[in-house]
Design a protein that fits this description.
It is a single chain. This protein is elongated. The chain is α+β, with helices and mostly antiparallel strands. The chain is built from 8 helices and 19 strands. A hairpin with a 2-residue loop joins strand 12 and strand 13. A 6-stranded mixed sheet has the order 6-7-8-3-9-10, with helices on both faces. Strands 13-12-11-14-19 form a 5-stranded antiparallel sheet. Strands 2-1-4-5 form a 4-stranded antiparallel sheet, with helices on one face.
Amino acid sequence: MATVRLEHVSRSFSRGRPALSGVSFEVGDHEVVTVVGPSGCGKSTLLRIIAGLDAATAGSVFIDGKPMEGVAASDRDVAMVFQSYALYPHMTCRENLALSLRIRGMAKSEIESRIRSTAELLEIGELLEKRPRELSGGQRQRVAVGRALIRNPRVFLFDEPLSNLDAQLRERVRHELKDLFTRLHATVIYVTHDQTEAMSLADRVVVLDRGEIQQIGTPTELYRQPANQFVASFIGSPSMNIFKARLEEGTLRLGANRFSTCASASVDTVVGIRPESIRMNTGETARILWTENLGSQILCGIRCGDVTLTALATRVPAGETAAIDIAPEDIYLFDADTGKNLNNGSSGRTGRA
């Protein structure tokens, strides 16, 4: 496996905002890094630049310390798995797996040995003589992964590989991929818009927005210490409650409720509170607007003064009102102009993955 390093990578097209702007991070040997962000943030463009399918306007890409400028995609020894699977429909799965090895001129015995070991690893032996149209979405995805795996590349690149699968199948294949990455000790860069995928698969996560890195860190760091309002609202499900408020000597007022925060000043700010941090008790300081039964939890809409919050409860509220409690450390404060996290102890690291 190999390391991947990006230094100030930018990509501009003829019009509009740059797709990428000064992106720098490093992926260590055997490390799984996910790149997550909303549609149009530059995730796939970044992956294509690493793969050599697109060229950076500025900046450099290094694989194992060697600059990739001028190195063709076929010579970078990376394998890419696409959202669309990209399997040849007229070929059997065996032929799809073998194609890249045949192009390299590898001996037939070695090709067959690799096909057998790859099929065993991914449990697709019974699919080898079938064509892609005869397979389910999950089976096609396994074969697409196998086609990348059989090459034994230095780096695996995944471009939203689970987006075409239904929710239940996506969850199962995600678990399979995580187990596969662990067994292979692979160096992986995995692009997705799904924060659940990003958090569950990665050693570290790169959060992108509008072509710029917002934060890099472990899933726990991103959840507990978001660098700014964007990261806080993007990471976590259900998403964080975000609203403007004025603190009075560090106290947050929500209707009849008073909550201490990590601040001490009187200031206008943006407040963030995760639904799971709101504890609901018997009382009348908040009005319950609606509830949604999620099975093991109940999602509640509650009104506190002029602010509507989403809260997670363990059971359906008994009445139409409730009392709420929020710990000071669970109340995030963000700069109203820059969006920066103002809570003590937020790291907001934005450099190395």
